[in-house]
Write a structure and sequence with these properties.
This protein is α+β, with helices and mostly antiparallel strands. It has helices at 3-6, 62-65, 116-121, 135-151, 173-180, 209-213, 241-245, 258-263, 288-291, 336-352; strands at residues 14-22, 30-31, 36-44, 51-58, 73-80, 87-103, 106-115, 126-134, 155-157, 163-171, 195-199, 204-208, 223-226, 250-254, 268-275, 280-287, 317-321, 353-360, 370-374, 396-409, 415-425.
Length: 449
Amino acid sequence: MPEELQNMIRAGDVSVESVLIYPSTNANPFDLTFVWNSLSISESIGSDYVQATIGFADTQNLIETIPIIGNEKIIITYRTQGFDESSTFVGRITHIPARTSLNQGSQFVLLEAHDENFVINQRLKFSKSYKNALISDMVDDIFEEYIKSVEGSDITIVPTLERESKVIPFYSPMRAIAWLAKWARSPDYRSGVSYVFFKNRNSYYFGPLERLLDTDVNVNVAASYKQSTNILGGDTKNKDLHEGLGNILSYSIRSHDHLTMMSKGIMASTVITHDPILRTINKKKYNYFNSFDDFKHSNPHEITNETSLGEFSNSRLLLNPTQHQAFGDGVDSNRTQDVASIRMSQIEQIRGTSIQIVVPGDSNRTIGEIVRVDLPSFGKTTLNDTFGDSDKYVSGRYLIWNLKHEITRDGEGKIVYFTHMRLVKDGNTTELPAQSANPFGSQSTHSIV
């Protein structure tokens, strides 16, 4: 084991093994392992790529010597104690967001890179028709032909339910897969329409959010996080890596915006469908509270106790023109009226309540995992140098939606590694109390004197 790894005894200790840039003008890489000042690797369920940034003080005019002009290959390898394998990012430099003068003879350079396959993907556009096929089979075909053949990555594809006829309208392969996700349903989660397509540090995923949230599938959480005063000191408890990695250094909470819940149709909406062939106009209404138990959630109880919000179906109207059997194959592939309201609500539910947490650097975490969070209920117990009991409405199971590994090195060469995570949930662990006084829509009994 390298000496640097042997010296890693605390949560957040990291060994950056190599930072290499491969220019187009030279077969040999430039080694920035001892030059960089900051590194970050970011993932998001809302994206189909992994992104990296690297900052360094350029005192040797590397930006011109290498030269760095864009599309250079970059490989970053780092490792934390307790894990057998190193984490590696392979990408292409796509942008130089900043070049700032530090003093005479030096400048700070910030580079932005995307994973290599995503860059290649942007160059490809294709159109292809599929007739009477499962959406999961379409995705598998696109992935095998345009993505795996280039990158060699793996993908988890959750099989879909209905057969469809679709024409890909000159999209990039990744955009085409994300487009197909809008209509995909799983045989195991027939009520929902929550398919997503993303890439984490391990592979790609095409499947429903419900499968990621399902407690029957994901019985155990990937990690548990809480605040602890015992881990922050300088005693031997710092050497407990497992406990240290689960310590929340800082956090902020964002709750659901009730105006957003109404305007975006999370609580209620209506899809109006016009078919010029059959000369019909249909309406399909959605009520969050009537259908809550039909879906899998991160936690078992509703995100709000204002049940009357589900009755305002006109709070969000979706217009959907359609054409009966447009492909002439007996398969009515335009099912937007059946899925639009449900999908919109499911995706917005999970993104509405979120927690931003910062923990000691953990290279083993990635997006799409379920974690447990226990946050304190502030009160009198906090006066005794403890964080008190858990907040029963905020604590619970969360999905990692965004993640950033951030590694910095100060002027003395000390390396600090933190993991930033945006965690989301679409339910509460504890049921909210029923509203009995002045529910939404009722007239206030208070008089103004």
